[in-house]
């Protein structure tokens, strides 16, 4: 099928040009998957005289379909009062289980939409923090005076705390692992730990050793050995 002729804007050939375009598009729909391609194709034949002026004006003022779609979506689903919503968010947001970095990013978004000033922002940010973290911040001798400095302080303190917790866990694992390995080794080998031999008790050289030099009994009556005076028979 032949394509439509070049159209110059003449009144006599206007209807014929339109019919030719419609007929060609209907005959080959696979070449025109969307309306934008159809529009571009038809305008491509309007190249001279008044038709060219019409084409240029149309392209200059043609509404962007995707922009119209965005506008319709915005009207249907967007927040009609963004500032009021942001103020509600910034006054109710809490850190909870989030890290400081995550909480700061969420707070920044609400703060930018709220229209709050620096002082009000600092006030709301402090009360959005977890109580232990806020206590650490308030213990700083010289508190920040800008919201950005508050962000930096909170992130720094939170990172320190999380690092300390992680290190305690590592030390606990290493300690229990060392004790367990030692016990396991002893059980596996069936050996007991070596112990030094017991040292003999040191004797006091001044202590009387009565029984060391004890000899044969001597009788005080007869001066003979072998018996005591109380049983002496030589009286």
From TrEMBL:
Q: Which InterPro entries match?
A: Znf_CCHC, Znf_CCHC_sf
Keywords, comma-separated and alphabetical: Metal-binding, mRNA processing, Zinc, Zinc-finger
Segment Disordered: which positions?
180-207
Q: Where is the composition biased (Low complexity)?
A: 185-202
- CCHC-type domain location: 219-234
This protein's record includes keyword Zinc-finger: yes
Its domain of life? Eukaryota
Q: How is this protein named in the record?
A: CCHC-type domain-containing protein
Species source reads Amanita thiersii Skay4041
Taxonomy, top ranks, is:
Eukaryota, Fungi, Dikarya, Basidiomycota, Agaricomycotina
